[in-house]
Design goal:
The protein is an alpha+beta fold. The chain is built from 6 helices and 12 strands. Strands 3-4-5-6-8-7 form a 6-stranded antiparallel sheet. The longest helix is centred in the middle third of the chain and has 20 residues.
Length: 229
């Protein structure tokens, strides 16, 4: 057990040889229900808050990444910054912590799936629906920019649809401040998804702002209309 910001954060460890993130394990105040997906930075799990009985999507960072203390410190600072932004087109961040050598974030669980999955199931969107979704995402991006943040990984896989059919930008794993004072990567190292990255982001330039996210949002619109990247 470790303390994070004065509160206890726990990971209930299973017997040796068993998956520490298997259903029934505990991460912070959340009981793991099932695995939702996996990405370059970690695994995403469906969890339920023990006291509130509220579902959440838990992103647990890979141990080899979490071993970098400087990275974890910056990552958690950016999580705090993103958690302060409340907008209907942004997935809310509920909680964050460290325990058992792992770093995790708890997000609002959006059960409607992401646009990448919807494209695979239903094919390209109509121009009207695609433009409607992109315009709403742009509204969310502006809220991030107003808070001094750059998302850096806008793509269909990171846009989720809620029960009312509204898009929500999620997965803030690469988000960072746009003022350059707290960069999560080194200059000269591009992080993101190549098919959607702006040239300056691909080159690893440090002074990214909302224009890089707008570039990725334009690429996302093209994918929604054509099912191509």
């Amino acid at each position: 057990v470790v303390r994070v910001s004065g509160e206890q954060a726990t990971i209930a460890m299973p017997p040796p040889g068993e998956d520490p993130l298997a259903p029934g394990a505990v991460v912070g105040a959340y009981r793991i229900e099932r695995r939702l997906g996996e990405g370059g930075m970690g695994v995403v799990l469906l969890g339920t808050h023990a006291l509130l009985a509220r579902p959440a999507a838990l992103k647990v960072i890979r141990p080899e990444i979490a071993a970098d203390r400087a990275f974890v410190d910056r990552f958690l600072r950016e999580a705090r910054a993103a958690a302060a932004v409340n907008h209907q087109h942004l997935v809310a961040i509920h909680d964050a912590g460290e325990a058992g050598g792992r770093t995790w974030l708890a997000f609002e669980y959006v059960p409607g799936g992401d646009l990448d999955a919807l494209l695979a199931r239903d094919g390209p969107f109509s121009p009207l629906r695609a433009l409607e979704l992109i315009a709403q995402c742009a509204d969310g991006l502006q809220a991030l920019a107003d808070a001094g943040l750059v998302h850096r990984d806008i793509k269909p896989h990171n846009i989720f649809i809620d029960a009312r059919g509204r898009p929500k930008l999620g997965d803030f794993g690469l988000a960072r401040r746009s003022d350059g004072d707290d960069r999560m990567t080194m200059t000269g190292t591009g992080m993101g998804t190549p098919a959607y990255m702006s040239p300056e982001q691909a080159n690893g330039e440090a002074d990214l702002d909302i224009r890089a996210d707008i570039h990725a949002l334009g690429g996302t619109l093209y994918t929604l209309l054509t099912r191509r990247t």
